[in-house]
Amino acid sequence: MIEKSELCELIPHTGDMCLLESVLSWNESGICCSAISHIDQSNPLRNHGRLASVHLLEYGAQAMAVHGGLLARKSGKKLLPGYLASLRDVILQLDFVDQIKTPLKVQAQKIASSSDSFMYKFKITSNETLLASARATVIAVSQQK
Question: What is d(CA 94, CA 121) in angstroms, rounded to the nearest whole number?
């Protein structure tokens, strides 16, 4: 299992903005992470003490980034920064998720990739209940000198 401190080394988000707690499993095509930050009152995405379910999309995006970081590290490379280019087929089952007191399971499955873009589908569940899902495309930003 990969813990939070190592996760923060794989993605550009650190501290409280690193929303995932650990990687439960991963392989070439996907990743499964856990998160408990939705319970934390200091979650930086909270507004007026509430955490809207739309923020679960950030949890999915971070799982994608961690997966990309793990794949890059495995191949001896460093993951280039990327921008979320599109979200499609978004499903949000609740208005707010701060009332959910059980850990979140964040799963992301790579469905396509090229040298500078990646497409994933992801879902976020709690106790096997679907909270959110989407399909996302990320475009890598080349590092020019």
Answer: 19
Give 37: exposed, middle or buried? Use CB within 10 Å, 0-12, 13-18, 19+: buried
Per-residue pLDDT tens for 81-130? Answer: 888 999 999 999 999 998 999 999 999 999 998 878 899 999 999 999 99
CB of 59 closer than 8 Å to CB of 11: no
Class of residue 124 by CB neighbours under 10 A (exposed 0-12, middle 13-18, buried 19+): buried
Q: Which residue has the tokens 């813990």?
A: 3
Query: Count of domains in the chain?
Result: 1
**Rounded distance, CA 52 to CA 79, Å?**
29
CATH of the domain at 79: 3.10.129.10
